[in-house]
Amino acid sequence: MNVLLSIKPQYVEKILNGTKKYEFRRTLFKKPVRRIEIYSSSPVRKLVGTFIPGKIVQDSPRNLWEWFHKDSGVTEEEFFTYFHKKDIGYAIEIAHVDFYPIPIDPFLESPGFIPPQSFVYREH
């Protein structure tokens, strides 16, 4: 099973240049995931690549920040704003990234494509 994640373009760039090694989420997948597709949200609005998830850590946002802030690719303010009023969060290790040479426009490839707010499962 694959998952399509919406990620803001400034964080996609940090994944590409290797400064963001963990993707943080407030909720996690219920099914086993082999590969994560990266949808760079507005204004890019393209599928830009994939990554293989490594270890996934579930803990309090405070602990996640303590352990992973150096590889987070986000500021402390951005991190804690994202996790506001959440007791539990998830850090997904970005184990292996494969960026597409030419980003894919999902609106042309799949008529009716709707970008996920967080993530959506994909069969392929």
TrEMBL record:
<feature type="domain" description="ASCH">
    <location>
        <begin position="5"/>
        <end position="98"/>
    </location>
</feature>
<dbReference type="InterPro" id="IPR015947">
    <property type="entry name" value="PUA-like_sf"/>
</dbReference>
<dbReference type="InterPro" id="IPR007374">
    <property type="entry name" value="ASCH_domain"/>
</dbReference>
<protein>
    <recommendedName>
        <fullName>ASCH domain-containing protein</fullName>
    </recommendedName>
</protein>
